[in-house]
Amino acid sequence: MVNQSTIRDVARVAGVSVSTVSRVFTAPQRFRDETRQKVYAAAEQLNYAPNRMAAALTTGRTGNIGLIVPNLANPLFPEMVKAAQHQSRRQNLAALLGDSDDDADDEEKLIRALSKDVDGFLLFSSLLREEQIAEVGVLRPTVFVNRRVDGYPCVLVDALQGMRQLTQYLSNLGHTGLLYLAGPANSWAANDRLEALLQAGAETGLQVDVSAPNRPGFESGNLAAEQLVRAPLPSAVVCFNDVMALGVTARLLQSGVRVPEQVSVVGWGGTQLAGYTTPAVTTLAVPLGELGSRAVDQLLLDHACPTQQDPGPVSLGVTLVPRATTGRARVS
């Protein structure tokens, strides 16, 4: 049956004006929680949904935001995206999702294609080059997640704080050095993570050897482990992300290398998958859900106060989660 409720019905049930209902749906960040909840509750009771196309014509707002990720197959991103979608719905926004397949040019194409249909973008671990940001960053308000870009709202994690926890932990276990399996060369997060580990290793007195850049996948971890078993084994391998750590662990075990008795393995991200495997992977856990939800909040804040001075990035902490893939350094 077609819903016959109108915006006037919602205003009557919520006890507010018609204009308030309209503005709650188009600019919810401008209202107190109490007002928003009254309007949303009345709309739900009446099974009323605003006509987004009509609203876009009158307000210039679509009620949509765009979420662009480099690779949905990476378990880091679904957890962040899910949290961003939930936070968007709480603000009566719809989230449109795009996957750039780890390609900066495809990311730019997605942004251009979606820019007419969204009010802003959340770019997760963006691979855009600086000249591309200059071109597309002006199309819509944009928040960068896991990448710092001057002049834009950013939601980051404190990589140095996390790596300091890790190097101290490994040092306490008797490790004097480690091999770091680096991430993609074109990734800001990969470079930030590497610099943090090098600094933390120097502070702790750990020797940090670094591999060539890798694609951030299970296969890269597998291939790296195949090469490791042909040479003297490092006592610890730290990976760019959890997926690579899973690939390393699986191949080492298949090759007869005991983990962690011979080699300790550490990932990054704190994805659920890393804790479900056997052995469960030690990881530096990023608050994935908070990254997604805080990014939506930053986008709404940017909408509400577009001329405000840049307050600097939001930086979230990282937590070391020791599991079965790390242990005391082997005795030579």
CATH class category label of the largest domain: Alpha Beta
Largest sheet: 6 strands, parallel
Which blocks of ≥5 consecutive residues have pLDDT under 50? Answer: none
Cα(first) to Cα(last) distance is 76 Å
Helix coverage percent: 40-55%
CATH homologous superfamily name of the largest domain?
A: Response regulator
Structural class: alpha/beta
CATH architecture of the largest domain: 3-Layer(aba) Sandwich
Largest sheet: spatial strand order: 2-1-3-4-5-11
Strand content: 15-25%
Radius of gyration: 23 Å
What's the average pLDDT? 91
- Please give the number of β-strands: 12
Taken together, the total number of domains comes to: 3
Could you characterize what this model shows?
It is built from 13 helices and twelve strands. By secondary structure, the chain is an alpha/beta fold. The chain folds into three domains: 53 residues, Orthogonal Bundle (434 Repressor (Amino-terminal Domain)); 123 residues, Rossmann fold (3-Layer(aba) Sandwich), CATH 3.40.50.2300; 129 residues, 3-Layer(aba) Sandwich (Rossmann fold). Helix 5 crosses helix 13 and helix 10 crosses helix 11. The mean pLDDT is 91.
Any chance you could write out the topology, listing elements then pairs?
Layout: H1 7-14, H2 18-26, H3 33-45, H4 52-59, E1 64-69, H5 76-90, E2 94-99, H6 104-114, E3 121-124, H7 130-136, E4 142-145, E5 154-157, H8 159-172, E6 177-181, H9 188-204, E7 207-210, H10 218-228, E8 236-239, H11 242-254, E9 264-269, H12 272-276, E10 282-285, H13 288-304, E11 314-316, E12 319-321
Parallel strand pairs: 1-2, 1-3, 3-4, 4-5, 5-11, 6-7, 6-8, 8-9, 9-10
Antiparallel strand pairs: 10-12
